[in-house]
Amino acid sequence: MTVEQICAVLEARVFVPGKGDKEVSSVSAGDLLSYVMGTAQEGALWVTIQTHLNVAAVAVLKDIPLILLAAGRQPAPDLAARCAEEGICLAGTDASLYGACARLASLGLPG
Asked: Which domains does the chain have, with CATH numbers?
């Protein structure tokens, strides 16, 4: 699925549109940045509640096209600005981390 399709299905709030036509290969969930750096596959969607600038750095490192902020979290302004610079979609959902992942799994995206 593409970034744009996932955001539409989840009815996510899109803070930064990024590259909507990028394909998402899998899902990674976590809030410990070193864990995501070590385990996320390139091209994965990342679900987190972290909202600070370093999230963008990890996304760039792992070629993550979509960061989904769970639990109604709002991005810090510098995170949104960096995502815009890097072409990373930054979106949000009111669903919990678990709820967002369960919904993504029901779409057939592997974890």
From this structure: 3-96 (3.40.1390.20)
